[in-house]
Design a protein that fits this description.
215 residues, alpha/beta, Rossmann fold, three-stranded parallel sheet, 5 strands, 39% helix
């Protein structure tokens, strides 16, 4: 949605009930689409369906890739490129995928720890591999340490998250606060909202000596 707004492109929102025929018609007018894997699998139920020429990319998110999607990719010889996690985890994941789906064509992979300056290079690697499907395995493995976390010198907990108590969300360094996924690890958005409000109260108390913000 943000990319559409920045690029001044129209946004089309589908109903909660996935209407395959309607989505197929909408995709004829789209260059970018965002679907969950189950929706893409529903589109691929028809072996005759092919993505429109103007559709440049489909962003998958919100759920793990279902086995049915990988099975179809293997059956049709789609070329798969995987981005995300660490090199060690990726190597093990690719080995498991190829063991489970022997005909799956994994044409390359790249770890998910890269700087913004490397994004174009990764895009070039994907294009050079002529990938039909790019899987972004961007699971949460803790906050990125390089940069702000390391430079601030804040204490981490046993899982690698920034350590801060629930009472005021203040880290081991004065004037630095932490909440949400950065503090508790991967969690639901409702927890992020709750901790964000409580952390705001902690910051207000630190600055003003007291706070009337809701906890």
């Amino acid at each position: 949605m943000i990319r559409c707004l920045v690029g001044r492109r129209p946004i089309v929102l589908c109903d909660a009930d996935f209407d395959r025929a309607r989505v197929v018609r909408l995709l004829e007018r789209c260059t970018l689409a965002s679907l969950v894997p189950a929706q893409l699998a529903a589109l691929l139920d028809d072996p005759a369906w092919r993505p429109p020429r103007r559709l440049r990319a489909v962003l998958l998110g919100g759920a793990a890739a279902p086995p049915a999607l990988l099975e179809r990719a293997a059956e049709r010889g789609h070329r798969i490129y995987i981005v995300g996690s660490t090199d060690e985890v990726l190597t093990a994941a690719v080995t498991r995928l190829q063991r489970r789906y022997p005909s799956l064509r994994v044409v390359g992979w790249h770890n998910g720890y890269y700087d913004e300056a490397d994004e174009d290079k990764i895009g070039d690697l994907v294009r050079a591999a002529q990938a039909d499907l790019v899987l972004l395995a961007m699971g949460f493995v803790g906050p990125k340490k390089a940069g702000l976390v390391e430079q601030s010198g804040v204490e981490l907990d046993g899982r690698g998250n920034v350590k801060a108590p629930l009472t005021n969300y203040q880290t081991s360094k004065s004037k630095i606060f932490s909440c949400g996924d950065m503090r508790r690890g991967q969690s639901l958005v409702v927890w992020a909202i709750r901790e964000g409000r409580q952390c705001a109260r902690g910051v207000d108390q630190f600055l003003m000596g007291s706070s009337e913000l809701p906890r």
